[in-house]
Amino acid sequence: xxxxxxxxxxxxxxxxxxxxxxxxxxxxxxxxxxxxxxxxxxxxxxxxxxxxxxxxxxxxxxxxxxxxxxxxxxxxxxxxxxxxxxxxxxxxxxxxxxxxxxxxxxxxxxxxxxxxxxxxxxxxxxxxxxxxxxxxxxxxxxxxxxxxxxxxxxxxxxxxxxxxxxxxxxxxxxxxxxxxxxxxxxxxxxxxxxxxxxxxxxxxxxxxxxxxxxxxxxxxxxxxxxxxxxxxxxxxxxxxxxxxxxxxxxxxxxx
Amino acid sequence: xxxxxxxxxxxxxxxxxxxxxxxxxxxxxxxxxxxxxxxxxxxxxxxxxxxxxxxxxxxxxxxxxxxxxxxxxxxxxxxxxxxxxxxxxxxxxxxxxxxxxxxxxxxxxxxxxxxxxxxxxxxxxxxxxxxxxxxxxxxxxxxxxxxxxxxxxxxxxxxxxxxxxxxxxxxxxxxxxxxxxxxxxxxxxxxxxxxxxxxxxxxxxxxxxxxxxxxxxxxxxxxxxxxxxxxxxxxxxxxxxxxxxxxxxxxxxxx
Lengths: 255, 255
What we know:
homodimer; about 260 residues; two-stranded antiparallel ribbon; 10 helices; 8 strands; about 55% helix; about 10% strand
């Protein structure tokens, strides 16, 4: 395996992300099954054509509005999210502003929490919560239920990139609004969250930051966007987008 | 992470495969980026509903016919294939009969080749080729070009589960007929092979063995099936199947 991907490779961005995840499976930043999750994301991104679909841009804008509207917005970060988009999350947290909290499902140790926090700080994150956290998500057992009392425990809106279904449901049941980023529009996370963004985080987060900067201070526009959120409708639009792509490819084969 | 998946879990088979791949990433049987490939497979299998689609059963039967018709059929096995379906490949190789050859892209060392061969032998494989092979696939550089002179080099039909695009194209250019098994119907492997099976190998291989046993000795039926292979048509049918599944899910959301 090589980390050298030529710039002119048609799928250079995707391959570079793959090698970054594989490399950090070795450093321990990425969890044991984090590489497998990344592969699932690659496959769904392939179906999108590795571009943000037009309808998803609207969902990203709605999510930016929801974060700006929040009293205590928190961005939850796991190993994969840090490796793929640490810098972008750091920039988004400043633009909103929102707190960053380390959130790890598998192999949660204080060493890994600190490793992820340090990784984010190299991209300019000032303060990272979730190190040895003491609060608990109600009705969620195991290490996945640990949250920071100054972070997710207090939050009204939580952005969870690459989250699992159980935790998403438990956060919703706890009264939080949840913005998920999941390339699988059919996953439990995507279906149960307040709004799911079906996009690669390396494209979605910079776009969310740009929208947040554009919207900031315009309360009526922010409220209008946040009020227009309809996750079932959003998911249906994404499924239609994928279906139309498959139809086009099918037509080409049957020519 | 736990290896204990309760039998009544709706996705038990998929989770068990995931944990087997993660465990063998540690033993070294699965390559560094083999876990990521597995994740891509999981995602596409999810789109199929984790069942063999009706149209794919016909493609599996055509593939069985092609193997039975061959003078020198060879089944190529990498780390993921061995971990997920070692026993099934061993059974298929006896039913045809076809030779088994270890085929590794990443981290090809004699130690890994032997490890995969030993793993197959525990499932009753008698003879496994591809250990320190001396022949080369023409125009394919690096370790991926190494093949056994008694195996793939001599073969007229090669079954390549979980193959990469470059190697598939090179084998076709070398005059081999290639049966690929790739859950991504749009991959270069799937598009360039003689016939692609869009299915999980843990379902496709036992079914292929059953068809081989059923067809064996019936030359006219074997020839008719082998002659009816049309990979573009096969791919279009699979895309239509996926598209109709998405349509159904979309309709449910828009109700």
